[in-house]
């Protein structure tokens, strides 16, 4: 697998590999009929993300059996997952009913409620009185009650415990919600090590085991981040079973999973990250003797592996150092520059905001403020602010302490330099470079203003 990764990386072929997977899965001839029925259209968050009829989860209670959710099976790994969209206000009851009926022990939430000023998921759980909200959420349409029990903050993810009660039978079950709070939409986590810490925490709880109901995994659309999690987990199970890192074909495994839900893994970066996480995860599941070719953070890295790590961190950076600023005085009057030009455009489901107040589609984020006036969404900030107030600093400490495939940068020149020293130096250089660029931008702005004043002064003299 490492040879395959290095080959693809060396040829910069992730886009083409991803496109090959997409083209092959586009040839699947599975029927999508139920999701497109008139009565079900407002139950889909995105127009172009629908479950196949053959693998969709069917609700057993109530007047509707439809929910945008798919049962994804990986028989070779003895794993099953329910992948679904982030709940809407009108589907929150259906979501919890599915959790109850499928006997799921956990919900894995891989997105935040609001991302880039867009509501990506309805807040479908009670935040608890200790966080300024309510302890109970009663869903009369499905006769269920969700009671907040406790919350545990683990830096870049949160674990909540709820009591789910069937109001008809008065039976109750405890449900865990593992909420990864630092995974950007269409992006990848901060590092494979941080992501693996989350994954193995989920594993340790036993909620992925075959003797309990399948976990409910969701992001916003239920295909990108959700697909990445399930691919990495199932591949690591197979590696552990076979005691061999090279015993699996990641592309084939992803194609097999796409037979159950469309579009799993949405970007070449997510595919690349999956490879990295699987290679890094192999160090946790395989005996030490079988890991001769897997680089360790405690040993000197080969130049090839250095380049892997460096390019991974570079692909995750989104700072002013990605922009080339000219600091020389302007020879002509300054022209306006749209800040949107600095950001790549992604034509995908994320470009369409969903108005959660009326269940209709909107084409921009302009309705976000009115969306958030809803009382049901008003508790979002109180919950997430409490949970994540110290996340940035704690995440930095976690990454600095954990095994990390993506924490090196282009400044790596000496094989004898320790990883800790490299991180420290890279961070310092980045801060210095950013400070210098800010200084240059301010300088350019002052020069531009001075140039404009002189131009106006000359104009008045004429």
From TrEMBL:
This protein's UniProt keywords: Endoplasmic reticulum, Hydrolase, Membrane, Phosphoprotein, Protein phosphatase
Broad class of enzyme this protein falls into: hydrolase
Coiled coil regions, renumbered to chain: none
GO MF term list: non-membrane spanning protein tyrosine phosphatase activity; protein kinase binding
InterPro entries reported for this sequence: NR_tyrosine_phosphatase, Prot-tyrosine_phosphatase-like, PTP_cat, Ptpn1/Ptpn2, Tyr_Pase_AS, Tyr_Pase_cat, Tyr_Pase_dom
Positions annotated as active site in the UniProt record: 219 (phosphocysteine intermediate)
Pfam families membership: Y_phosphatase
Residue ranges of domain Tyrosine specific protein phosphatases in the record: 193-272
Localisation: Endomembrane system; Endoplasmic reticulum
Main location: membrane
Binding of substrate, residues: 185, 219-225, 266
Biased segments, Basic and acidic residues type: 420-434
Biased composition (Polar residues): 345-393, 401-419
Annotated ranges, domain Tyrosine-protein phosphatase: 14-281
GO biological process terms, semicolon-separated: negative regulation of ERK1 and ERK2 cascade; negative regulation of receptor signaling pathway via JAK-STAT; neuron development
Keyword Hydrolase applies: yes
Family membership noted in the UniProt record: Belongs to the protein-tyrosine phosphatase family. Non-receptor class 1 subfamily.
Protein name: protein-tyrosine-phosphatase
Organism: Caerostris darwini
Lineage start: Eukaryota, Metazoa, Ecdysozoa, Arthropoda, Chelicerata
């Amino acid at each position: 697998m490492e040879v395959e990764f290095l080959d693809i990386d060396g040829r910069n072929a992730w886009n083409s590999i991803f496109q090959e997977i997409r083209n092959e899965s586009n040839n699947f001839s599975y029927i999508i009929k139920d999701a497109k029925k008139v009565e079900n259209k407002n139950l889909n968050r995105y127009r172009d993300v629908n479950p196949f009829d053959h693998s969709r989860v069917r609700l057993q209670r109530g007047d509707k059996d439809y929910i945008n959710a798919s049962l994804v099976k990986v028989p070779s790994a003895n794993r099953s997952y329910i992948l679904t969209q982030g709940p809407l206000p009108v589907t929150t009851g259906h979501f919890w009913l599915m959790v109850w009926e499928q006997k799921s022990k956990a919900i894995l939430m891989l997105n935040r409620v609001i991302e880039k000023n867009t509501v990506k998921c309805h807040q479908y759980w009670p935040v608890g009185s200790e966080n300024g909200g309510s302890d109970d959420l009663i869903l009369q349409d499905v006769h269920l009650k969700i009671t907040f029990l406790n919350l545990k903050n683990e830096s870049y993810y949160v674990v909540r415990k709820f009591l789910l009660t069937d109001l008809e039978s008065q039976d109750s079950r405890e449900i865990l919600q593992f909420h990864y709070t630092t995974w950007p939409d269409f992006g990848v986590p901060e590092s494979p090590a941080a992501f693996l810490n989350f994954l193995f925490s989920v594993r340790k709880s036993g909620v992925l085991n075959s003797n309990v109901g399948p976990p409910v995994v969701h992001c916003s659309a239920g295909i990108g981040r959700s697909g990445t999690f399930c691919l990495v987990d199932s591949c690591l199970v197979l590696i552990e079973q076979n005691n061999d890192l090279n015993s699996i074909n990641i592309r084939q495994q992803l194609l097999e999973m796409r037979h159950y839900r469309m579009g799993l893994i949405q970007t070449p970066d997510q595919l690349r990250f999956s490879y990295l996480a699987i290679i890094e995860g192999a160090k946790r599941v395989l005996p030490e003797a079988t890991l001769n070719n897997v680089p360790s953070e405690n040993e000197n890295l080969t130049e090839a592996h250095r380049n892997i790590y460096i390019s991974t961190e570079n692909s995750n950076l989104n700072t002013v150092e990605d922009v080339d600023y000219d600091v020389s005085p302007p020879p002509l009057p300054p022209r306006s520059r749209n800040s949107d030009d600095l950001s790549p455009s992604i034509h995908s489901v994320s470009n369409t905001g969903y108005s959660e107040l009326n269940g209709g589609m909107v084409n921009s984020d302009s309705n976000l403020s009115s969306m958030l006036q809803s009382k049901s969404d008003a508790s979002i900030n109180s919950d997430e602010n409490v949970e994540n107030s110290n996340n940035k600093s704690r995440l930095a400490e976690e990454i600095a302490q954990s095994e990390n495939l993506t924490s090196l940068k282009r400044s790596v020149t000496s094989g004898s330099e320790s990883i800790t020293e490299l991180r420290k130096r890279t961070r310092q250089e980045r801060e210095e470079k950013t400070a210098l660029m800010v200084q240059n931008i301010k300088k350019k702005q002052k020069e531009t203003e001075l140039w404009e004043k002189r131009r106006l002064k000359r104009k008045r003299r004429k």
